[in-house]
Design a protein that fits this description.
Elements lengths: L1 H10 L1 E5 L2 E3 L4 E6 L10 E5 L5 E6 L5 E4 L5 E9 L2 E10 L4 H24 L1
Parallel strand pairs: 2-8
Antiparallel strand pairs: 1-3, 3-6, 4-5, 4-7, 7-8
Length: 122
């Protein structure tokens, strides 16, 4: 009985790619058998950072599902398949303010480049 339980859990997997992302960025959830065959039509649930559980949909014929996290924090994607519960962790962080970095770093980089090029000419 124990061997059956171990083999049941070891034969399938559920994976979020990437497992660390930003809010609003699409994540691909893959459901596969041990031999790499896709698990089509697998109903997926997500435990949100606030603790609520939502049904998010089902995998397509390729065993894939696109999920976009809308809240900051740890998510847990899960599905029941063949008596086993498949779980994949996912962590979403807040989007970094890239515009402000560009407004500060680009002029600073140009100033340093100008200074070093003047020093090299002398």
């Amino acid at each position: 009985m124990l061997a059956f339980a171990v083999l049941t859990v070891a034969c399938q997997w559920l994976e979020a790619k990437p497992s660390h992302t930003e809010v609003g960025v699409e994540v691909r959830i893959e459901a596969r058998e041990e031999d790499g065959e896709p698990i089509a039509g697998l109903a997926l649930e997500a435990r949100m950072p606030d603790g609520s559980v939502e049904s998010i949909g089902a995998t397509d014929a390729d065993g894939d599902f696109a999920f976009v996290p809308e809240a900051v924090g740890a998510h847990r994607i899960s599905a029941s398949y063949g008596g086993a519960v498949l779980i994949s962790p996912l962590h979403a962080e807040a989007r970094a303010p890239r515009l402000w970095y560009a407004l500060v770093c680009v002029p600073l980089g140009l100033a340093l480049l100008w200074r070093h090029s003047r020093r090299a000419r002398d």
